[in-house]
Amino acid sequence: MLRTLCWAVPVLALLTAGPATAGDNKDKPDNKKPSSGTGPGAGPLNYFDVDRFFQEYDRNKDGYLSKDELPERLRHHFDKIDANKDGKLSKEELRRNAGWLAPRRRPSDMVYVLVEMSDCDEGCAEEVQLMYDVLRKLDRNKDGKIDPQEMKAMRERLVKERVDFLFKELDADKDGKISRDEAKGEIRRNFDKIDRNKDGHIERKELMEAALAKEPPLPATPPAPGRKEAGRPPRK
Q1: Residue 178, H or E segment
Q2: Does residue 16 carry a pLDDT above 80?
């Protein structure tokens, strides 16, 4: 519920970045406009040239793309692009749903971005090294794998460190508790939720519990009119 608190309060602001899901393009078809696709994660395919794409892959020149005409790497969401479920893709379907051609991005992809897209090897090597150092600490039994128990242990360690920092920063009278007057940022705004025993103070245990609590899943993005599925699924 309040796991983000331990990140937010040191700078007195909660910084979050939610995934944006692009909607259907209501404009008239125009190959020079960005496609508005409904694909997950990657968002619109900017300046996607549908006509050129059809010239390259419409082998029988019937004005449609069948699944076997698409490269195998682009077939994973064929049914989502095929809005009318006729087993082939029209240019308009591709314009509206081109985002589904892109693979779904994962948080771990940032490693590939740092390695492949870097224009400053020295700086990015330092960042990758920091990631590597964290992963080695995660692998406590040194078996070359990271299991859920190791993840949980590291999470609890990190949260404890941040809770210690917050108490050092906010507990002005050093009584081992944070009063409502001492609280700041997200801790102040969520004071009543964190103060579970309702004694008017936040104890270290209460802040740890709030920071470790799991957040509820996000609701699914409502489907666009006439479409069975659009947007991202609920976060698990």
Answers
A1: strand 177-179
A2: no
CB burial of residue 210 (10 Å; 0-12, 13-18, 19+): buried
C-alpha–C-alpha distance, residues 181 and 11, integer Å: 17
Is residue 65 within a helix (H) or strand (E), and if so which, with residue range? strand 65-66
Is 27 exposed, middle or buried, given 0-12, 13-18 or 19+ CB atoms closer than 10 A? Answer: exposed
Query: Which residue type, as a one-letter code, is found at position 185?
Result: G
Q: 81-115 pLDDT, tens per residue?
A: 999 999 999 999 998 988 888 777 788 888 888 88
Measured distance CA(53)–CA(59) in Å, rounded:
11
Three-state SS at 147: coil
Contact yes or no for 34/48 (Cβ under 8 A) = yes
State how beta strands 88-89 and 177-179 pair: unpaired
* Half-sphere CA count of 129, side-chain side, radius 13 A: 6
* CA–CA gap between residue 100 and residue 37 (Å, rounded): 7
Domains of the chain by range and CATH?
5-13+107-212 (no CATH), 21-105 (1.10.238)
